[in-house]
Automatic annotation (TrEMBL):
Keyword Chloroplast in record: no
Organism whose genome encodes this protein: Micromonospora sediminimaris
This protein's name: Oligosaccharide repeat unit polymerase
Keyword field: Membrane, Transmembrane, Transmembrane helix
Lineage, top ranks: Bacteria, Bacillati, Actinomycetota, Actinomycetes, Micromonosporales
Keyword Membrane assigned: yes
TM stretches of this protein: 56-78, 99-123, 157-181, 188-206, 212-229, 236-256, 343-366, 378-397, 403-421
Length: 464
């Protein structure tokens, strides 16, 4: 089966030379290619070559990733050509970044997010993470799997898709914006408040006993640092790893998913994390395709149910629970299909071919066109960073996956930051015009970017 993976890996190497090398790994296109390669590698290791269904699934997945890479490369080459023809740069790394202070509107949204988060855990009645941690410390491990499932799919439905927008995306994202400003320009009170928000955000991300939301946001923080430093990783990018990796390890230990009691805790945690990247999602994808291949094509119906899951009062698709039942004979868990398996179930093979190419075109355009201005603020960049990670790491589940992880919320933050920056630029322009009209006899300073004019810092003035 490795013969399916190697040609795609070769294409990915060419893709790196043609496109990714120019803009780096931490982009929607770059992350997507790496995550899909990991998904494909783990899948070809696990498929049963005696099963026609699983063999077809592996071939389908390899073809989809290959189509994505080809479409992405062709789009990149076309955009480079048009950029040369128009005399512009395809990739812009020459922009300035303004830090957004904690304004009243930002603090209000943070307060709303905190209220939603606290109300949710109050309604649930517990934090799965803290109960699991207490159980590990007491020597009586709690049943985290059931606690986690009851918190978002129990008898009392508490709108987890809606809550996740505040708990897993908006609250930690705005905490990052406020913390960056506070530790750069704020005083002691602002820094203390930011530290408290960081602790609260971490507790919210881990509260339901899932590591995924924490890992996604830590990656978002790293991508933010990369974008803030104009597409290069600063030393500050180490902070999310230093602060977050112990929490990820602790959450893995609290989950206690591995059965090997003779293993040391560190070895068990490390093995569990490795399985998460190269085994768990891949095995779930194979089980899902075995199940959905026996069902009629949904023609987008299952994705529509997934879209509705973000709205309060709608549970969305039950496909992941149905797949879990086929593996464990219980509905007390979820086993989502892979991205390509979900597309095949909803739109058949032709739809998969079309969407794989469309994804390649769209993510390549997003990669090259998301940073075209000369000025950005930290709110815009955290929105772009979140979109990058949500789309770049989309390897499992249908359309509900990026929505539940916070795609719409990050789009909103990007838009909000753009409006905020637009108002400031408008105010600055209006102030400049007012100042100019109040000094009618002053000759304006020359354009220092044109040859032959005064050097930077010189001023020319006179009277008529």
């Amino acid at each position: 089966m490795i013969t399916l993976f190697l040609p795609v890996l070769g294409l990915a190497v060419v893709h790196y030379a043609v496109a990714m090398r120019r803009y780096g790994l931490l982009t929607p296109d770059g992350l997507f290619v790496v995550c899909q390669l990991l998904m494909l590698y783990g899948t070809v290791r696990l498929v049963d070559i005696e099963s026609e269904t699983e063999l077809f699934y592996a071939q389908l997945m390899a073809a989809a990733v290959a189509l994505y890479i080809i479409a992405s490369m062709v789009t990149s080459l076309a955009m480079q050509h048009f950029a040369r023809q128009s005399g512009t740069r395809a990739v812009n790394s020459d922009y300035s970044v303004t830090l957004v202070a904690p304004t009243g509107s930002i603090l209000l949204v943070i307060a709303v997010s905190v209220v939603v988060t606290v109300a949710y855990f109050t309604a649930v009645g517990y934090s799965a993470f803290f109960l699991g941690l207490q159980g590990q410390l007491d020597g009586t491990p709690a049943d985290i799997a059931n606690l986690r499932l009851d918190s978002y799919a129990g008898e009392k439905y508490l709108f987890p898709g809606f809550v996740n927008q505040f708990k897993n995306a908006i609250l930690p994202a705005l905490t990052l914006v406020v913390a960056v400003w506070s530790f750069s320009r704020g005083g002691l009170v602002a820094r203390a408040g930011s530290a408290a928000l960081i602790v609260l955000s971490a507790a919210a991300l881990l509260g339901t006993g899932q590591r995924g939301a924490l890992v996604v946001f830590l990656t978002t923080a790293i991508v933010y640092a990369y974008l803030h430093n104009r597409r290069s990783l600063p030393r500050a990018a180490v902070l999310p790893i230093v602060l977050g990796l112990p929490l990820v390890m602790l959450a893995t230990y609290v989950l206690a998913r591995r059965d090997g009691q003779s293993e040391s805790p560190l070895r068990a945690v490390t093995a569990d994390l490795i399985d998460r990247f190269v085994h768990d999602n891949q095995a779930s994808g194979i089980a899902a395709f075995n199940y959905t291949s026996m069902l009629p094509v949904r023609n987008g119906g299952e994705w529509l149910e997934g879209l509705l899951s973000v709205l309060p009062g709608h549970r969305g698709s039950t496909l992941s629970s149905e797949i879990f039942y086929t593996v464990y004979w219980s509905t007390r868990g979820t086993s989502p299909p892979s991205l390509w398996g979900s597309i095949h179930y909803n739109f058949d093979t032709v739809g998969l071919i079309v969407l794989a190419a469309l994804f390649g075109i769209s993510l390549q355009i997003l990669t090259q066109r998301s940073l075209r201005r000369r000025r950005y603020n930290s709110l815009q960049l955290v929105g772009i960073a979140g979109i990058t990670v949500v789309l770049g790491t989309w390897i499992a589940g249908g359309i509900e996956t990026p929505l539940n992880v916070g795609l719409v919320s990050y789009l909103g933050l990007w838009f909000w930051g753009g409006r905020m920056g637009g108002r400031r630029r408008h105010s600055a322009t209006r102030a400049d015009r007012t100042a100019a009209t109040s000094r009618p006899f002053e000759v304006p300073a020359p354009d220092i970017y044109r040859p032959g004019h005064a050097a930077a810092g010189q001023q020319v003035s006179g009277r008529v």
